[in-house]
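quick one: iron/sulfur cluster bound model?
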Amino acid sequence: MNIEALTEAHLLSADAVFVSAMIVQKESFNEVVRMCNRLGKPVIAGGPYPTHCHGEITGVSHFVLGEAEEILPVFLDDLRKGTARAVYQAPERPDISQAPIPRFDLLDMNAYGSMAIQFSRGCPFKCEFCDIWVLYGNKPRLKAPQRVIAEFARLAELGWQGSVFVVDDNFIGNKRRVKQDLLPAIIAWQQDHGYVFRFFTEASINLAEDEKLMALMRDSGFNGVFVGIESPSPESLQETGKNQNLQVNLGQAVRKIQRYGLEVMAGFIVGFDSDSEDIFDRQIRFIDQAGIPQAMVGLLTALPGTLLHQRLAAEGRILGDASGNNTHHLETNFQTKMPAEQLRKGYQKILDTLYDAALKNYFQRCNRLLDNIGEAPLFRRSVRGAEIVMLLKSLFLQPLSPYGFQYVKYLIRNLMKNRRFFTEVVRLGIIGHHFHTMTRELLKVEQISRVLEMTYRNLSDQLRTYPLHVYDASRTTLAGVTDLWRQSQTALKDLSIRINDIHEDFRGEAIRMHAEFARRVLDLFQPLTPILIQSGVPVPFTESAAKQ
Ligand code: SF4
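yep, here:
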């Protein structure tokens, strides 16, 4: 659904519809279920969101909870026999060593920037906020290296070249097997196939302690790794049980990984109980000095099933459901120690600085990263047609964007200094556009929220100066109230125009705030309806309100 809208025609052609979702996709999940219900199609649901929350989900015919490999065949068998139950729960975590090869042939590969494969599930650590180890366990389960290689072969056979995301939550959960079995097999395959793939993955920071592992990753064709750094504050890391991050100097660890030719993309969190007022500046400084262009900063969120959720629930601090959105989202679902407004403002400051309107800071971090990667070896591969189109679009369109000056400066600098990485230079430039859009759109929504709040406060302050039930209002009162009503309607109209200008991915939140503001304005003016009617203003109140 990221690449093509789901239509009724798609659903009508199906016997049954299987839906899988993470918590962040729950709105879209519910919409699909509603569509299927309307069309009378049975829905079978699984994945992290149904596994955690199936009690609150309606409209689903059958749930298949937990990991599907072993329980799904049981369900399908019952379905065929007409005896399928409402809920199937995987009794234990399945052995994935011989998992089937995904049907990559069903994808429109040109619509994707990278393909995805998985080597392992589970993570040996127990971070308080994380649901990965809760869902998949602390003992990583691995696919046999030959299975992974078979997936590469299938992708290559289908004509894929370029980026492959190894989607493991912690690729180095079992370092020994990765070093001894998997990476040597990948190196051999890549050498035989002209290094057609570039890999990126996710790993814990203890990667930096293992030179052999980093060298093997580099020689396999890995060029990026996402690391959960979370915070430069040792107190916050300790609070959240991220002990592996306390064992190393985080800045040095990042630079060491970069020197093996691996871009470090990283996750950061604010909102820990131990976070002090200066945490926002410390995060900005750390990310800048470490040269991390792709820094995904989010507010701490209590996901269901995590230790954090249990602790906060016991302390009576849970305020609602988690959105599951861990970056560019301004709300959290629990009572934070730091006042909510301060946290929100500080978080915005981080985003606004990291991805400033001119992207100056972003490109500076790119430069730092590229200089750091320095002499790491490069494996040449041919470039896909879709990538050439992307490159040309970037070169033509980005210089004309609001950050165009910094972009061109960045290209020229790296054409002189890091020419052998030029494809990486352009790739980072394109990613900068993504972060720029995300941040600027989010800040537009935030600005609208501020304007709405200010307008409402102004209106209610001024209205308070008029008597509540007025039958024989003076001319001044009539004029004053009417003017305020007109102001409120003009504000609503102006803001609608601004909302239409927001990217559709962010518009929903602004529309919700706008509707809420309109409702509050009506409530505010309702007692003054007689005055507005006397002034001949058409007001959308109920008849009974008008008679008051
Ligand atoms: S290291 Fe990452 S995947 Fe593992 S428990 Fe911590 S946050 Fe989760």
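Residues 123, 125-127, 130, 132-133, 169-170, 204, 228 surround iron/sulfur cluster (CB under 6 Å).
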